[in-house]
Write a structure and sequence with these properties.
Order of helices and strands: HHHHHHHHHHHHH
Distance between the termini: 27 Å
CATH topology: Growth Hormone, Chain: A
CATH architecture: Up-down Bundle
Strand content: under 5%
Radius of gyration: 20 Å
Mean pLDDT: 79
Number of strands: 0
Helix content: over 70%
């Protein structure tokens, strides 16, 4: 694979390029959720809007080959960022209330589809451009842009929305996110590998996917992990919606679930990327799940005050960042090069499935049993997922506690993994 001559991008560049992905999600899960609650939307309705923004990320694997076989990845990033920013502005201009949920879902769905292509473009450039020595740090910055973007799209946009209105906040955010495509001017574009007929290209992508993901026990374990709720951290998507039950003001929500949460999540992502280079990732995933469960249970037990809300939501966001950063490092280990966008999205898209269904489950639990019931449901599923994952790791790859081999270890075999 040849790359256009040019400097190797600093790992922070991947965070900037991926920031619109997280910012659009944050706009829905924080700004839209908090204001929607003020205008009469139920927790279940808000969960439906947030889940809709996640839905295209569950199925993006099916259109990932388009990003591998057509335009330059830099072109895809700019075009997708343009469409995403436009639909984000449209959401801000639309009326917000119980009668507009359907139209908002349609706009949010288009936005999610656009940012899925933005993500694919960034992932493909990252897989082919980052050096092996940079991979862990690049993974951390990549997810730092994702979760840090939630703070900008959620917290900053909410602060603006309470002062200049939803429309003004959406326009300001849309213009700012367009600027995140500027680092593309400094990145060398990888030369396409799949030339000739589309049928041949699809065949090559399929063989590459089978060889590196589906035909190994480690790859199968990775696929199973994508279906488990461990590390989903779904409750973070509803913190803004339930904040009023902790007596938390809009400015505090913007600060805690937006800007500060973005910074804390980004720090967690960097820690997860570092862990992906330093230790057995099976243990890291399980510990992250148990940690998230403990935080959710602690939030249920603690007094419902703004201070408790801030402390527990920030701890929860820290744990979610660690989980996301570690997942990206593992996925890059499995996919290698080749049809990078397709292979990464085979894992990344499936990994959004538990986030999608847990947002809906948490929203249902909140409508049925209140915010406390939602927190307990989230904790129980995190524990169940972590226990199931460790059990499957023992069965599939022979992992035992204290054995630092296989998935996520420095001594992990190169792709394709054995087994």
């Amino acid at each position: 694979m040849r790359r256009r001559e040019g400097p190797v991008p600093h790992p922070v560049v991947w965070g900037v390029l991926f920031l619109p992905f997280g910012a659009t999600s944050g706009y829905v899960s924080v700004t839209l959720a908090f204001v929607g609650r003020q205008r009469g939307l139920s927790d279940g309705a808000i969960a439906g809007l947030v889940a809709t923004s996640t839905l295209p990320q569950v199925w993006k694997f099916f259109w990932a080959p388009i990003a591998d076989m057509t335009w330059k990845r830099r072109s895809w990033h700019f075009f997708a960022n343009l469409v995403s920013s436009a639909t984000l502005v449209a959401v801000g201009l639309a009326p917000l209330g119980p009668g507009s949920v359907g139209s908002l879902k349609a706009l949010i769905l288009v936005n999610g589809l656009a940012v899925s292509f933005l993500g694919m473009a960034t992932e493909g450039l990252l897989a082919h451009t980052a050096t092996p020595e940079q991979r862990g740090r690049a993974s951390g910055w990549f997810q730092a842009g994702n979760l840090g973007g939630v703070g900008i799209g959620g917290g900053l946009a909410l602060a603006l929305a309470t002062r200049i209105g939803m429309a003004g906040a959406a326009v300001a955010l849309g213009v700012g996110l367009l600027c995140c495509s500027l680092p593309l001017l400094r990145i060398g574009e990888p030369v396409r590998e799949h030339r000739g007929s589309a049928v041949r290209a699809v065949s090559e992508v399929g063989r590459d996917l089978w060889r590196t993901v589906l035909a190994s026990r480690t790859g199968v374990l990775a696929l199973i992990l994508c279906f488990l709720p461990v590390g989903a951290a779904a409750a973070s998507n509803l913190f803004a919606a339930i904040a009023d039950r902790w007596g938390t003001s809009s400015d505090t929500v913007a600060l805690l679930t937006g800007l500060i949460a973005g910074v804390v999540s980004a720090v967690g992502c960097l820690a997860g990327g570092w862990l992906s280079d330093a230790m057995d990732r099976k243990v890291a995933y399980a510990v992250t799940g148990f940690f998230l469960a403990a935080v959710a249970a602690g939030m249920w037990l603690a007094p419902r005050t703004p201070v408790a809300f801030g402390a527990f939501t920030l701890l929860y966001n820290l744990g979610s960042g660690v989980a996301f950063g570690a997942f990206t490092g593992f996925a890059l280990e499995v996919i290698g090069k080749g049809a990078a966008a397709t292979k990464y999205n085979a894992l990344a898209s499936l990994s959004n499935l538990p986030i999608y269904y847990m947002i809906l489950v948490d929203g249902w639990a909140s409508d049925r049993w209140g915010a406390g019931g939602m927190l307990l449901m989230d904790a129980a599923t995190e524990i169940a997922g972590a226990v199931a994952f460790l059990g499957l790791a023992m069965a599939l790859v022979g992992w035992r506690p204290g054995l630092a081999s296989g998935l996520g270890s420095r001594r992990a075999p190169k792709v394709p993994a054995g087994g």
